Amino acid sequence: MPVILLTGFLGSGKTTLLARWIHHPAFADTAVIINEFGEVGLDHVLLEKSDDRDVVLLDSGCLCCAMNSPLQDSLEDLYYRRLRGEIPAFQRVIVETSGLADPAPLVNTLAADPSVAAHYEFAGVVATMDAVHGLAALASYKEAATQLALADRVVVTKTDVAGAAQVQAVLEEVARRNPHARAVQSPGERPDDAASAAIEGLQAHALPAAQETPRPRSDRFSHLLRYGIGSFTLHTGQAVSWPQYARWVDAMQRTLGERLLRLKGTLVMEDGHVYAIHAVHHLFSPPKALPDDSVPPALRGALVVIARDLSAEDLEEIFALLAQEPSAAR
Predict the structure, then answer these.
(1) 187-231 pLDDT, tens per residue?
(2) Model pLDDT, residue 173
(3) Strand pairing category for 55-57 and 63-66
(4) Could you tell me the maximum CA-CA distance found in the chain, to the nearest angstrom?
(5) What are the CobW C-terminal domain coordinates in residue numbering (predicted)?
(6) Do 168 and 64 have their domain in common?
(7) How far is the CA of 302 from the CAs of 214, 319, 323, in angstroms?
(8) Is there a domain that residue 122 lies in?
(9) Domain that holds residue 38
(10) In sequence order, what are the beta bridge partners of 307?
(11) pLDDT digits over 89-130, tens only?
(12) Can you tell me whether residue 58 is helix, strand or coil?
């Protein structure tokens, strides 16, 4: 079952978006895990209806769970309650983070923890961005910048109260800081459509259509963004052997370590199949084989690296290991 991580800075509207999701008929088979109370919207509903229970069935059919234990335990508990018929069957899970959370550890858990992978699949990160105060938050708080950098989708909120110039400035900043994320606006003329668009076709390894013509070398950017967070696009058009992949992973772990906020994309391996590649910090998930027709040819071998304090030249030196023959690396 897919698990979606919903993040966003304090007051950016993520709980409002979550409330839209759970009241939309298409999300009636959704379980929601909340790891912080206190915001308006869904949280107070859960508190009012909880009666000291940690899992609540809302009128819309959604399940809400207050996360009082590690995320792995909460997911496992939900799965086995579902299996035993104690709660209605759900088909997806949305995890809402704290407004001040660094989402990287939770991404790590969802993408790399074996106990989670037994029953769930990480689908990606949705981040909310406030059209009124978002730029100020990015300038002042590292957490806000990290949340945006790790997003696969960005929902620009409060567009109904922001001016057109404000909205445009936010969209441009989102594109500058995270050119690999698809941005949608909410609320629009039909808020439910924006809520659905935020997760439509979401996949942790997916790259947007704008990257379907990747450059052969890293997509250098002219300046380092605030807090040293940068985004790089890399591409290799050749098949990679498993020894090459192992050397590259080892070099990424040793050289980048905690500076690697996130890596996602695909590689064509020596068996001819396309594999989804995902990593956070020093932890690399096992490559996952994808259906051969699910990845457009131009996106095969494309990787996005989001990291702190890393130059394109340093990354290209490590990336070259994927192109070296085994004899050249010895």
Answers:
(1) 654 555 666 676 776 766 666 544 444 443 444 433 345 567 777
(2) 92
(3) antiparallel
(4) 65
(5) 229-323
(6) yes
(7) 7, 12, 13
(8) yes
(9) 2-197
(10) 230, 260
(11) 888 898 888 788 888 888 888 887 888 888 998 988 999 999
(12) coil
* Cβ density class 79-91: b for 16+ within 10 Å, e for less: bebbeeeebeebe
Same-domain pairing of 122 and 216: no
Residue 202 domain-assigned (yes or no) = no
Give the per-residue pLDDT at 268: 92
Given this model, what pLDDT does residue 216 score? 38
Distance CA 69, CA 248 (A): 35
| Residues of the chain where predicted confidence (pLDDT) is lower than 70 | 35-69, 187-196, 198, 201, 203-227, 324-330
Q: Is 175 exposed, middle or buried (0-12, 13-18, 19+ CB in 10 A)?
A: middle
Same domain (yes/no): 222, 243: yes
3-state percent breakdown (helix, strand, coil) of the chain, nearest 5: 40, 25, 40
Please tell me the distance from the alpha carbon of residue 154 to that of residue 244, in angstroms, as a whole number.
34
Separation between Cα atoms, residue 309 and residue 254, nearest integer Å: 15
**What gap in Å lies between CA 17 and CA 128, rounded to an integer?**
8
What gap in Å lies between CA 78 and CA 85, rounded to an integer? 11
CA dist., res. 128 & res. 16, Å (int): 10
Q: What CATH number is attached to the domain comprising 163?
A: 3.40.50.300
Predicted TM-score (pTM) of the model is: 0.75
Q: Looking at residue 286, what is its pLDDT?
A: 86
For residue 187, whether the previous peptide bond is cis, meaning omega lies within 30 degrees of 0, is yes
